[in-house]
């Protein structure tokens, strides 16, 4: 059932988050690590819907820290500590599983996350199949930008395969008079949102 799968996915992601925390917490300057809250399956035989899930209620501003389809640029993902640490968590899991598994839909309040998803390659990973499309893994690979937390954990940059594309984009922009015009024209198509996000800081 969907409910059962939801439990399985979130609790699997939670195990990865615990391993990530164990590796990241001891690092000097890393600080607090995001956690995925547990989700429990309850059986209510007398009810129309016999199975339900129960989890801790999160109070506060609910934020999505990872994009589902890569079409939107989520500022909170880049500009908040929790957002950056979530991106690093995704990168860490991706590297640990040799690119076979990715925790997606990281969302929650502060460092407490819930309702996450998992994408795996078609064959699954270690007998586990995710509930999200494999395309999320491809998108992550193309869109992820390493931050200081990725560096602290010594994660390898995923950018190398995209170097060629970057060169192609930069040659086009040389014909435009100045940087501010580029900003106005590029956002919709930009492969590298970094260019216009940096203006926020």
Automatic annotation (TrEMBL):
It is found in: Basolateral cell membrane. It comes from the Eukaryota. GO terms for molecular function: ATP binding; protein serine/threonine kinase activity. It catalyses: L-seryl-[protein] + ATP = O-phospho-L-seryl-[protein] + ADP + H(+); L-threonyl-[protein] + ATP = O-phospho-L-threonyl-[protein] + ADP + H(+). GO terms for cellular component: basolateral plasma membrane. Keywords: Cell membrane, Disulfide bond, Immunoglobulin domain, Kinase, Membrane, Repeat, Serine/threonine-protein kinase, Transferase. Residues 170-181 have a biased composition (Polar residues). Its EC number is 2.7.11.1. Residues 189-201 have a biased composition (Basic and acidic residues). Residues 1-158 form the Alpha-type protein kinase domain. PROSITE patterns: ALPHA_KINASE (PS51158). Pfam families: Alpha_kinase. Residues 161-201 are annotated as: Disordered. Belongs to the protein kinase superfamily. Alpha-type protein kinase family. ALPK subfamily. Protein kinase that recognizes phosphorylation sites in which the surrounding peptides have an alpha-helical conformation. Regulates cardiac development and cardiomyocyte differentiation by negatively regulating Wnt/beta-catenin signaling. PANTHER family: ALPHA-PROTEIN KINASE 2 (PTHR47091:SF2), ALPHA-PROTEIN KINASE 2-RELATED (PTHR47091). This is Alpha-protein kinase 2. The gene is Alpk2.
């Amino acid at each position: 059932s969907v409910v059962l799968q939801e439990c399985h996915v979130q609790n699997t992601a939670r195990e990865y988050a615990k391993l990530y925390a164990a590796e990241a917490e001891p690092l000097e300057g890393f600080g607090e690590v995001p956690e995925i809250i547990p989700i429990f399956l309850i059986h209510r035989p007398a009810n129309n819907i016999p199975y339900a899930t129960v989890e801790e209620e999160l109070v506060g501003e609910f934020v999505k820290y990872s994009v589902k389809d890569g079409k939107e640029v989520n500022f909170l993902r880049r500009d908040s500590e929790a957002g950056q640490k979530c991106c690093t968590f995704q990168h860490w899991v991706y590297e640990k599983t040799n690119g076979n598994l990715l925790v997606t839909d990281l969302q929650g309040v502060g460092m407490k996350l819930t309702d996450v998803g998992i994408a795996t390659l078609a064959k699954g990973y270690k007998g586990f199949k995710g509930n999200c499309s494999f395309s999320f893994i491809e998108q992550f690979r193309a869109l992820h930008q390493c931050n200081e937390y990725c560096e602290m954990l010594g994660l390898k940059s995923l950018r190398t395969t995209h170097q060629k594309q970057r060169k192609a984009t930069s040659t086009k922009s040389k014909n435009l008079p100045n940087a501010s015009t580029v900003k106005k024209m590029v956002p919709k198509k930009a492969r590298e949102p970094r260019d216009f996000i940096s203006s926020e800081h």
